[in-house]
Amino acid sequence: MTYKIVGSSDRTKELEELVKSVAPSDASVLITGESGCGKELYARAIHQQSERSSKPFIAINCGAIPSDLLESQLFGHKKGAFTGAISDFRGKFQDAEGGTLFLDEIGDMPFDMQVKLLRVLQERNITPIGSNQLISVDVRIVAATHRNIESEIEAQRFRQDLYFRLNVLPLVIPPLRERRSEIRELIEHFAKIHKQSDKGLVELDHDFLSAMEAYDWPGNIRELSNTLHRFSILYAGRKIALSDVDPAMLPAGLLELLATNKPQGEPKARLFEESDGSTGMSNLSRQTDVNPPEGIDAEFESIVMLAQGFGDFTEEQPSLKTMLGDIEQDLIMKALGEAGGNVSRCAKLLKMQRTTLIERIKKYDLQSA
Fold first, then answer.
1. Start and end residues for every CATH 3.40.50.300 domain found in the chain
2. Which residue, of 9, 214, 290, 295, has the fewest CB within 10 Å?
3. pTM of the model
4. What torsion do the CA atoms of 58, 61, 64, 69 make, to the nearest 10 degrees?
5. For 107-126, what is each residue's pLDDT tens digit?
6. How far apart are CA 19 and CA 177, in angstroms?
């Protein structure tokens, strides 16, 4: 399998050239960057372009394995070495013989294991647990971490000598928010990767793409990939706009961005959107005039007129909360009628979360199927 680095920004091109430069060497590489930014992809690219490419590439997440098992996973063990050791076990170093061992999240490795790893890197041999026999290993080490190792060293959570041993060739991967120009390329790339076998590619319209570019993507490329995977399943073969997508299917941060960056001059009827982030009343927000939707009484007109600066407040009028509640109740009743009492269908019509709708139905004591 070929591991392709996608992106045409200057920074990505520089990284591709750096990979080409460091790949032929046997020196250790330390890849740093935020979680989800593609560190393993670069590690595999280094292996693929090295003289070890025909040998194994073995990856292990140092932060995902309990400390009492990590030594066995790395160096192996002999039968009977500890409770549960029912047979001999080859560790990752032996599995990667002649190839590359990728130590992901090296910054989460327990301190006592760092000492043992340093000795292996210095002496190039291992001793399986329960054995007194040294086994020579020929393995190139590529490590990665999302942590700031210098800060970890100052906090005495990471050994400085191990850092120097690993950081012979450093690679720093920038987060996706620092290379927004690549987001459209990556969207097209992931749409192809996640394409459903019997259906076409999902596409995003211009405004949707612009919103995706404006989002910071705290989960980086992994979050973007997962989002496109979701769209490819739900909207296969379609060109979709933001309004086509159930808010629950969008990253929460993107919803917050859209809520706080509304276009200038947008109708003030958007005050009917729910404050909890869902868009249950978003059908009202699209009204471009003050005429009430069919089935809603003059109370709606009154409140919209007030919100847009027309009309006067009076002491006799109901409270804002009461007026909004009455409008919301009327809309839910109308949608329930159109949906034949089906809550899921009603939630879809109102573009709101099903659980939120159920809460409103209980609140207003409405009937549903």
1. 10-174
2. 295
3. 0.70
4. 60
5. 999 999 999 999 999 999 99
6. 22
